[in-house]
Fold:
Amino acid sequence: MKIARRRSSLLAVAVALSMASPAMGQVAWDAPSLMAPGSPAGWGIHLFDSDPGDLGVFATWRAAPAPLGLGIRFGIAEGYRNDLAILGGVDVSGALYEASEEVPMNVIWFLGAGAGIENDILLSFPAGVSLGWVFQGDEVAFRPYVAPKIILDAFLGDEDRPGRFGDDDDLDLGAALEFGLDLAFSSTFAIRAGASVGDREAVSIGVQLPGR
Structure:
């Protein structure tokens, strides 16, 4: 009897933890964000794997290198219920610090708004800063970056979920830390990789192509 009760208690705890954060139930549009100082202009095609969810692909577009201009993202993925999930969003950014001889690091701020749509709709509004460095080689530039951010998630759907703001709450405030690396072979072509941890667990790899 004691063993059965313990198993029942463990199962209840596991269920409660799985419902503790609403973001656990939908594929988010902003993971990884790939927001780095100098993110190149043009089209990007990326494969990604996120939790929740599974493999997917998304495309990005920038009219000018970050922090200039507007960024756009859209894609599809296998959702956590093995259904098709659709995602999309936009981002804006601005310069906070430009690299100097004393501090060879660029810093930008960024904001975003977008949605992941499967059985329900997850609206996500990330805000953060991104710190980037540039190491120039003979034929390729190495641009590592790190980007902490907070995310406000809002849910539109039929299910009630317990959130950090109370029971049956459809708002959730989370945080994530992202690491990434761009290998730039020109001003417009780069191989880009990113990984995020925290309330946005995801990895991606892709290429950035010229816009024209």
